[in-house]
Design brief:
Elements: H1 3-13, E1 16-17, H2 18-27, H3 37-49, E2 53-55, E3 68-71, H4 73-84, H5 95-106, H6 111-136, H7 144-175
Antiparallel strand pairs: 1-3, 2-3
Helix pairs in contact: 1-4, 2-3, 6-7
Length: 181
């Protein structure tokens, strides 16, 4: 996924200012695609220069007033093209897994505490996703748009479930007494 496509998606859902986009990224898209305030503003400028978005005309011209952006037909067409394109899965790159591999060589000092910290963080994220699911996806919300948003959330739930289970098993395995070497 790329930041311009994440921004086009968010703007098609609701025209927004850069600040509003940043807040929305923090609450939804940011769960699976993050961006800083500066990255969002830089990309908004580029999308506007390329004719994919435009700043909506404001009611009054005042200095420092926030611009609200909307997607133009060319932006919708680009997002539709990108959505329909084939893309290969990306290989997993996770620092924790690399650190565990390194611990096999240099020793496990500090690893168990960090694994527990990761487990706590993944449990918190899982609880947050499950609360969003309860709140935002009650039975009967079955329009295709709702189902697509729900499957994205389910991916997050499933991923956090995987990490909590994997971390729990890893901690149990590390706690097992070692046999003679």
């Amino acid at each position: 996924m790329s930041l311009p496509h994440a921004i086009l998606t968010a703007l098609l859902e609701k025209p927004s200012s850069g600040l509003e986009l940043t807040r929305r990224f923090d609450r939804s898209i940011g769960y699976f695609w993050s961006a800083t305030h500066q990255q969002i503003y830089r990309e908004l400028g580029r999308l506007e220069r390329e004719g994919l978005t435009r700043a909506l005309p404001s009611a009054q011209a005042t200095r420092g007033q926030k611009k609200e952006y909307e997607v133009l037909p060319a932006g919708r067409a680009e997002l539709a093209r990108w959505t329909a394109a084939s893309q290969d899965p990306k290989p997993l790159r996770d620092t924790l897994l690399l650190r565990l591999r390194a611990a096999a060589v240099v020793g496990t000092d500090g690893i168990e505490a960090d694994l527990r910290r990761h487990l706590d963080l993944h449990k918190e994220q899982l609880a947050e996703y499950e609360e969003i699911e309860r709140r935002d996806f009650p039975p009967g919300r079955d329009a295709v748009e709702d189902r697509l948003r729900h499957v994205v959330l389910r991916a997050g739930i499933d991923l956090e479930t995987f990490w909590t289970q994997w971390l729990t098993r890893t901690l149990e395995e590390l706690a097992e007494p070692q046999g003679p070497s």
